[in-house]
Amino acid sequence: MRVFITGGTGLVGTPVIAELLAHNHTVLALARSEASADAARKAGAEPIAGSLTDLDVLRASAAKADGVIHLAFSNDFSSPQALARSVAEETAALTALGDALVGSNRPLVTVSGTPGIPGRAATEADPLPLDGPVGGRSRTVNAILGLAAQGVRSASVRLPRTVHDKGNGGFAGLLTNIARQSGVSGYAGDGNQRWPAVHARDAAVLFRLALEHAQAGTAWHAVADEGDAVRDIAGVIGRRLGLPVQSVPPETYGPLGPIFAADQPASSAHTRETLGWTPTHPSLLADLENLEP
Q1: CA-to-CA distance for 148 and 108, rounded, in angstroms?
Q2: pLDDT (tens digit per residue) in 221-231
Q3: CB 210 within 8 A of CB 109
Q4: Do residue 49 and residue 79 come from a single domain?
Q5: Count of domains in the chain?
Q6: Would you tell me which of 50, 163, 258, 268 could form a disulfide with 57, CB atoms 3.0–4.6 Å apart?
């Protein structure tokens, strides 16, 4: 396939490009800067100049591709207002991508997060939360999956709270950054809440499998570790950085505070059985051992 990808030079996008190329696909990668364009070329992709706000570029690129993978997000969590702007930007971009593929039966694979279900691990059949800090993203993903009724082979890969590589990335990466800045490796509440995780290179394989094989309107879980206690995550970070480990107020994490404090394990049993996805890379706790002091 000739695949158009947004976010192709990020933590997840970089191994996705490598995975696609390794399976004989060609890749067009959205590049919002010359540095991103250079990174895309070095990875073996053809850069397409533009950003998520360039809706005409998105439509044109999707129209000439055999399939689309959407990964880009501004990740501005500095305030509720900034997060809302990021969500609105992504909504407009995904709507443009979906419009370009209506009636084509071509795949559009987008990204979301695994939901938190009280008392048990979330499954692929569980709905995404429509309220809270990222409820707008969930509503947009649901609209994209609804394009299955309009001739789009849409699918969603739900990423867990931490997508990691060499100890960096995801919520664990945010904990690490805050620990370096504050001098404390913190966790919200009692730290017994669990976060699912996946290595970025394992997630990349699932994006490729969804592009190639997922039925229209389906959701999949890129979950390798069903749920690590946040206190254990903070414990490894503290030990690697030589910092004390302790509970901190959820407000420490800004608009993400309620999510950081929630127990939210997730399962990928259906994904593994149906798409034949088998994670092979290190677990989160093992990967965090790569953190530099």
Answers
A1: 10
A2: 999 999 999 99
A3: yes
A4: yes
A5: 2
A6: 50
* CA pair distance 25, 2, nearest whole angstrom: 6
Q: How many Cβ atoms sit within 10 Å of the Cβ of residue 243? A: 18
Residues β-bridged to residue 247 = 187
Residue from 184, 202, 85, 99 nearest 143 by CA: 99
Q: Count other C-beta atoms under 10 Å from residue 249's C-beta.
A: 11
* β-strands 153-159, 26-31 pairing: unpaired
Instruction: Identify residue 29 by its one-letter amino acid code.
Output: A
Judgement on whether residues 206 and 260 belong to the same structural domain of the protein:
no
Which token pair is 211?
Answer: 């592009």
Higher pLDDT, 266 or 83: 266
Residue identified by tokens 């800045």 is: 181
Give start and end residues of each alpha helix (H) in 44-192: 55-63, 80-101, 135-145, 170-182
Please count the other Cβ atoms lying within 10 Å of the Cβ belonging to residue 246: 13
The tens digit of pLDDT for each residue in 243-259 reads: 999 999 998 888 888 88
Percentages helix, strand, coil for the chain (3-state, rounded to 5) are 45, 20, 35
* Other C-beta atoms lying within 10 Å of the C-beta of residue 15: 24
* Residues 144, 152: Cα–Cα separation, whole Å: 9
Distance of alpha carbon 136 from alpha carbon 129, whole angstroms: 9
